[in-house]
Amino acid sequence: MALSGITAAEDQMIESLTSKIDHKLETLSTDTSYMSCIYRVPEKPRKANEAAYTPRLVSIGPLHRERGQLQGMESYKLRCLRNFSNRFRVHLRDLVRFVARGESHIREYYEDTINLNKEQFTEVILLDGIFIIELFLKKHSFELREGREVLFENRWMRSDLLHDMLLLENQLPIPIITGLFSFVDPSFLNGITLHVLAHKFFKDVGNSGKLPLTECCYSARHFVEFLLFLHSPTHPKELPLFPATKFENTRSATELQEAGVKFRCAKESCLFNVDFTKGELTLPSLKVNDWTETFFRNLIAFEQCGYYSKDITSYVIFMDNLINTRNDVVLLVKHGIIKNALGENEAVADLFNNLFKEVVTETDNFYFADLCEDLNVYSRDPFHEFKSKWFRWRRMLRRDYFGNPWSFISLLAAGVLLILTVIQTACSILQVK
């Protein structure tokens, strides 16, 4: 019987919708360990640099599998699966069964709804998981490569492949890769784990090659998070009880130098081991290469999409403060703080000046807030403020008057003329008396 004021048709619709929603609630997972962590990059940062979030060579996972220009790698993935199965004498049925059993859980790592049926999704995860394992093994052991494999021999393909492996949208859950890795003959590995192989594969990204694996790295859900854990602060900063209402950016490297700040390269490789003591700013070195922008952009995107910390974002903000022009890069390169593998210093300056666009950070999450405050207090006290002005004035004189011999001669002549004029005037006054 219909409720008062509701027709029978409306009542039937309500019952139908209630049943559908109830079914969805029943099937909703309550296992928080599989909450989504592989996100679509938001529109604003994507517009700033589309290429930094888009695969060039290979699709990993379901989000970019339909891109036509990436289909050429699908046959290579099949060869990887065949080689893996034959080398370790693993039946294909066992691999398919293993992935199919975890299919529903694997889906929950992705924020997007994946419009693939169970068979299609299982195939994608299996092929891509074995591809990654083969990639890591071939990177580690040259003898596993099939002759001169173009994927490793061609410099541009190697660069594009590493770029694609850094993308937030191009990830597989590490637990499923670890499960497939368990099919590898232990005697072949000699104790080497998947995470050790991943560490070696990403050694040219950020400071990965100089940083040790930590316990957190083994709990990473995908390789973007793996790299984030690898580069995280050794001593995480606790959030203040009373968040700051604002924080002030510090001056650029050249402006700080003008105010008397000295720069030194730290012995440690952790990006967050930055110290300012007695007028000396110590920073770890960072190699800036073809993957630096992709690396930072995708880690920032991961943090902004829901990760609890904003440490990498803080580091990028801090470096953006220090680097405004090529002169700032020249200064940091001179002290070994920046290792410029891009060539042009302007390219490094542009990279850091553009990384933080379209990103919002809460003030209480800024890791270097106290450090920036100390730098500002130091550079703005009367003595260092005067020193900064004197430095700029001296630089202006050098540029405008001592930049070439003719400028110097002109200035000297003007000085001599002024002195002679003063002497002549003085003599005239004495004669009158």
TrEMBL record:
Q: Which residues cross the membrane?
A: 406-430
Looking up InterPro entries in the UniProt record yields:
DUF247_pln
Carries keyword Transmembrane helix?
yes
Q: Which UniProt keywords apply?
A: Membrane, Transmembrane, Transmembrane helix
In terms of superkingdom, the source organism counts as: Eukaryota
Protein name as it appears in the record: DUF247 domain-containing protein
Organism expressing this protein natively: Handroanthus impetiginosus
